[in-house]
Specification:
single chain; 14 strands; Dna Ligase, domain 1; 8-stranded antiparallel sheet; D-amino Acid Aminotransferase, Chain A, domain 1; Rossmann fold
Length: about 375
């Protein structure tokens, strides 16, 4: 929002009523509007149509996972699909089943999977693919709602629990390994920036096990980086991201050392990923995404000069409402994450070894002195 404002755009925020008091960058906003809910699509269309009577909007930009579908719906309704994703393309960046089908079509390696539509297909999948398996919601965020199941009986029990919601889930082979994320920018259909990062622990383990979250820049000389950039480029260009930012996850399987596509998105990664990428590379993903939106029709775009540093992030729920972070004093700290009942840091150093050393130390101390955990939720609040 701030970058768009600085570039001379009029920026309007549409949110829901319960989020009106959030600390939006109101100094960068021409106006702020709210509706009761984004789930009432007809009411949402009517509200935006009312605004359109007095203002012709040029872009609709979705800021998080849930809003990707909302933005696509509005572009379709107002016939603005030449300025962003319509419903079909948006599904490739929200619907885990659509992602897997498309990835298979373009030759990207994925864990074996099966939609929960036809029970004979599910039985054949369970007979063909050894467990454990993951039963996943098709359109949730992060690891919310994912269940690890060990036996066929457990699978059918979970399917029965889902009732009429079954078709909104899929079942997938669990591929143990190391989880990576590639944070990218695309211009006119081509990937122009891709930074490879590695989670300390796969997100499902953190989300369901209550551990301390951490990620870091992967050493750029590693062969993994070149391979992940290659796969990521093929995937995003094959999915038709077009313009903007993406956060895409891949698992390097322990069994065969191959990379498997897990999921992608048409937005900037959460959990301070953008801050980590910026301190490592000099690229502010949010700001550059804003410039790319403008450059769809106005002017040329070029990346800022790139730095070759290394970044890291660690975050945890804290049993203290406002934890005292003064015992953490290393010069590698570039940001202290200020959230109620959280503790976390963004780090930067000249070598990946130093980032790893500080992260390991901080994670150990956070787990011992600050960490708190909540039961994993089946859904993330919009």
């Amino acid at each position: 929002m701030e970058r768009l404002h600085a570039e001379g755009c009029e920026v309007y925020l549409l949110t829901i009523e319960e989020k009106l008091t959030e600390p939006w960058a109101r100094h960068a906003l021409t106006d702020v509007y709210a509706v009761k809910s984004f789930h009432d699509r007809r009411g949402l269309a009517n509200a935006v149509a009312y605004l359109f009577r007095g203002k012709k909007f040029d872009r609709i930009v979705a800021l998080d996972d849930f809003d990707i579908e909302v933005g696509a719906f509005l572009r379709e309704h107002f016939r603005m699909t030449d300025t962003g994703h319509g419903d079909s393309t948006a599904r490739l960046f929200r619907d885990k089943l659509a992602m897997r089908v498309r990835a298979r079509e373009i030759g990207v390696r994925i864990p074996d999977f099966c939609p929960i539509f036809n029970y004979d297909d599910v039985r054949a999948f369970l007979a063909r693919v050894p467990g454990p398996w993951l039963v996943k919601p098709r359109s949730e965020a992060s690891a919310a709602g994912i269940r690890k199941v060990q036996t066929a009986d457990d699978v059918w029990r979970r399917i029965d629990e889902l009732g009429d919601e079954q078709s909104f889930y899929l079942i997938e082979q669990m591929v143990p390994g190391d989880l990576f994320h590639v944070d990218s920018l695309c211009r006119n259909g081509s990937v122009i920036f891709a930074e490879v990062n590695a989670y300390h622990t796969p997100l499902l383990d953190v989300y369901q096990g209550g551990g301390v979250y951490a990620t870091r820049t992967h050493p750029r000389t590693s062969p993994d980086v070149a391979e992940l950039r290659r796969i990521n480029k093929h995937l995003l260009e094959g999915f038709g991201l077009g313009w903007g930012a993406s956060h895409t996850e891949f698992m390097k399987a322990k069994a065969d050392g191959q990379f498997y596509f897990i999921e992608t998105s048409a937005r900037v990664g959460g959990a301070n990923t953008a801050d980590m990428v910026e301190v490592a590379t000099g690229v502010n993903l949010w700001g550059e995404w804003a410039k790319l939106e403008i450059c769809r029709t106005h002017g040329e775009y070029s990346l800022p000069p790139l730095k070759q540093r290394y970044g890291g992030v660690t975050i945890s729920l804290s049993r203290f409402e406002r934890p005292d972070t003064s015992p953490f004093s290393d010069p590698e700290i570039v940001q202290r994450i200020e959230l109620k009942n959280h503790i976390g840091f963004v780090l930067a150093a000249d070598t990946p070894e130093r980032v790893r050393e500080v992260l390991d130390d901080y994670m150990r101390r956070i787990a011992r002195d600050y960490h708190a955990a909540l039961p994993a939720a089946d859904k993330v609040s919009h």
